Amino acid sequence: MKRNVISIVLGGGRGTRLFPLTYSRSKPAVPIAGKYRLVDIPISNCLNSGLNKILVLTQFNSASLNSHIKNSYHFDIFSKGFVDILAAEQNVENESWYQGTADAVRQSMKHLEKYDYDYILILSGDQLYQMDFREMLDFHIENGGDVTIATIPVVAKDATGFGILKSDDDGNITSFYEKPEYDILDSLKSEVSEENKHKGKEYLASMGIYIFTRTILKKMFEEGAGDDFGKDIIPNSIGKYKTLSYQYEGYWTDIGTIESFYEANLDLCQDLPQFNLFSSSPIYTRARMLPPSKINGSYVSKAVFGDGCIIMADKIENSVIGNRTRIDKGSTIVNSYVMGADFYQNTTEIVLNDRSGRPNMGIGKYCYIEKAILDKNCYIGDNVKIIGGKHLPDGDYGTHSVQDGIVVVKKGAVLPSGTHIG
């Protein structure tokens, strides 16, 4: 079946709910699983689906994301594939930045004219899932869809936090409700599998993954259908165009908050995580040519390690440890995500810091860290205690912030020896 597709990954806005991880980077550039970036997920799903014409639309805090894309995705000269950046721009026709997800694509359409494509696949840059887009494309083509939306069955208590789509028995979407009130949910049930019905998953939530037939999307833009896919384009397409629901049965989560980001990372440490890093469909990222991680005298249980780590901790449990992380002797890391570092300190600097009492990059001696996220390039001294939990009030505290009981130490923060948080 002909799948002449161009994929567009939306680079995201300010990402305020992921602050301070998004203070100096966009959401898709946030490190995940110790060695990847969030944007690697949709790009890898495309490449594993045989779709190698990919554009990433960027606007806010895009330097880190641009650098990662440039250093990660290279195709040989005989391939027609690419992963290119399309940055927001002002021009003589339009002096405003992107006003929403649909507006970002609308403003970029002129750059797509040089490509041969029949369908546009729209993806978010901040979700965790593994999907073969070929199956969704085949569904769209076989059913004569103008618009196809990937949906996932959810239970009633989760439905109020999503855009909920109601479909008929043939998969046609008949109505859309953005974060519906609980008391109207009974009228929004859709046809789902018996297994999902048994679990109470009878409501179809939009995953923010869309396929448009090229001519239809151009027509929608010409009609001025709106600036946002979820709020404008999709609701306006129902009843006017053939709008289909493609039900996805696998694992999917939206990395929209610090809590969801934290939980998604720690789930990777489980015996059977919901997101399988060890499948036959690899997650691609930048090849850093780092040495293997070195662990000396540590008790380790349910932990994921990146590359190039030097670990002398007493205990690491239920935690993700990112590239180039250094943890000194006597320290304990529990239920935490340590993102690691962008570079190694040289030996001379480490010796001078030890003599002067300045913290080195990484985690010092006899520290205890629990329920925390340590962003990259942190300098944690000796005998530092960080204990997250619901007893901590949310807020920004300079070197760190607290959200939902999770302590987030900011990128490059220095915590002197003896610091106690929690």
TrEMBL record:
Superkingdom field: Bacteria
SUPFAM superfamilies: Nucleotide-diphospho-sugar transferases, Trimeric LpxA-like enzymes
Uppermost EC category: transferase
Enzyme Commission number, as recorded: 2.7.7.27
Keyword terms, alphabetized: ATP-binding, Carbohydrate metabolism, Glycogen metabolism, Nucleotide-binding, Nucleotidyltransferase, Transferase
Domain Nucleotidyl transferase as annotated: residue spans: 7-270
InterPro entries, alphabetized: ADP-Glc_PPase, ADP_Glu_pyroP_CS, NTP_transferase_dom, Nucleotide-diphossugar_trans, Trimer_LpxA-like_sf
GO molecular function, one term: glucose-1-phosphate adenylyltransferase activity
Pfam families xref list: LbH_GLGC, NTP_transferase
PANTHER family in the cross-refs: GLUCOSE-1-PHOSPHATE ADENYLYLTRANSFERASE LARGE SUBUNIT 1, CHLOROPLASTIC-RELATED, GLUCOSE-1-PHOSPHATE ADENYLYLTRANSFERASE-RELATED
Protein family (similarity comment): Belongs to the bacterial/plant glucose-1-phosphate adenylyltransferase family.
Protein name: Glucose-1-phosphate adenylyltransferase
Species the sequence originates in: Chryseobacterium endalhagicum
